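Minutes, project check-in

Agenda point 3 was the complex the collaborators sent over. CS summarized: two entities, 624 residues total, and the question is how they sit relative to each other. Sequences were read into the notes so everyone works from the same version.
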Amino acid sequence: MGGVAVVCGGVGAARLLNGLVEVVAADELTAVVNVGDDMELHGLHISPDLDTVVYTVSGQVSRERGWGLEGETWQAMEMVGRYGGADWFSLGDRDLGTHLFRTDQLGLGRPLSEVTADIASAWGLDFTILPVTDDRLRTMVTVPDDGEISFQEYFVGRQHSVPVTSVRFDGAERTRPAPGVLDALNGADRIVVAPSNPAVSIDPVLAVPGVAEVLRRRREAVVAVSPIVGGKALKGPADRLLVELGRESSVVGVAGWYRDLVGTLVIDEVDRDLADEVAALGLEVVVTETIMAEPAITRRLAETAVDPASAR
Amino acid sequence: MGGVAVVCGGVGAARLLNGLVEVVAADELTAVVNVGDDMELHGLHISPDLDTVVYTVSGQVSRERGWGLEGETWQAMEMVGRYGGADWFSLGDRDLGTHLFRTDQLGLGRPLSEVTADIASAWGLDFTILPVTDDRLRTMVTVPDDGEISFQEYFVGRQHSVPVTSVRFDGAERTRPAPGVLDALNGADRIVVAPSNPAVSIDPVLAVPGVAEVLRRRREAVVAVSPIVGGKALKGPADRLLVELGRESSVVGVAGWYRDLVGTLVIDEVDRDLADEVAALGLEVVVTETIMAEPAITRRLAETAVDPASAR
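CS then shared the predicted structure for the full assembly.
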């Protein structure tokens, strides 16, 4: 089979995929995407990470806002607001079309993986995008005052400003990998773990029975790109979550998190002085530019992730 | 209690209500609205007749199109179309906001009547708008080639261009009138049956146990405005449906349909020569202008419906 399989969360993964589609043939590239952030809202099935990947790699993301769709409008949510309804999770009108289609098709009994393929194809994407599972998986976090809440209530509702004491993947033990997921991971020459949040974006993918086992067994083929640069997450609460969950917010913390499953960690130039500490945990280390500020850097980072030897 | 209760379908009823709100105090006016056209689409609960009443009487209906909301956009449906999804029932972005709110609130376990009150209130409407029932009621029609299909598949999907051999109100026998419906009908000085389609807009309201019984018992207080003028329906397939279901397409056909429940029928000037035939069926007849082409006519028609003696 060969090729590259990418374990993906949302934004960081989508950006790396922008580079990977440049350096890996479409029929050799498979994205295995987190669905722990999925939710039902207003009766609609929303898959934030799948949509972020599709919208980003197809070039539809608003350049101005950096999220959501180009040319988006907000008429539906204005109406929801008029009625005093739940408008904490803002859905654009164009984005709503995706959720309407997905919900409709799921209601007809089609699996999420098939519906995702239709959506990706409609945007002209020709590599494979798979939800890690077609079954229900929900990332839940425990916060001090409210107990256990859904990921989106934490991330969007509370703007990830409260400390998290634990993370749980509800339903994970009953999920099965979506068709093609284990084949892609088993058959790939290279498994890339995208620079997504380890605790709430990558771990739910690994919680699907069988997925972590492949990475553990194929550890030498697994390359992770650190989502922590200079001790900070580029976006989102990965840095705080690492600390709240008992690690340090650094590439060393990331290495400790992934050490059983990942053979090589790609870290940023600014973290070069931590390379020995990472190596001491038993990981190969590659130091390079990892902040994907422009296409040339993104492409080089993708090349490094696929062939870390080339960068050493 | 006193006041006026109006048995309503969609467009024709909404127009008459535009006049009724001018001549009846808000706290004395109750609209009891058909929900047989309701449907679930893309996971959303859609109540076309309730929305038509709210949007029309609050002055939000697009003047240019005559249906849907002023300032409407169609971004979500364009996306559904891109995906090859079900776009036969076009939902505007603003309109979607109403469906999102309704679906969300119903999902929280609130009854449709409460949610409808919230929506009406958000548009500044101060008379009472009640769905005839909070329970599930679905108008089904039988057509030659496809057997039994939902009302919306017939009305929108096939643009009501196929003959109907029968109409059934699925679930009607298990519904209960929404809170306030029987009180409004029992307590009103006048019950008005709006100029809506008798077979598929008014009959589903009457199919809710208890409703037809009140009209039958209070027949002398019930005034219907004929939806057929000069043998034709002003809008929709009421004329063809009357014929397909064994009546004639005329005010006489309407009188025959309603004769057990309605004491007085308001017919248009153009049908004056049929007044005796209507009277022969045992109904009082009032002849007046019924085509609501301008506000003054609408208001006079509303006055006539509330007090038919004034027009005789």
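Noted in discussion: Residues 141 and 149 of chain A are 6 Å apart (CA to CA).
Follow-up: revisit at the next meeting once the mutant set is ready.
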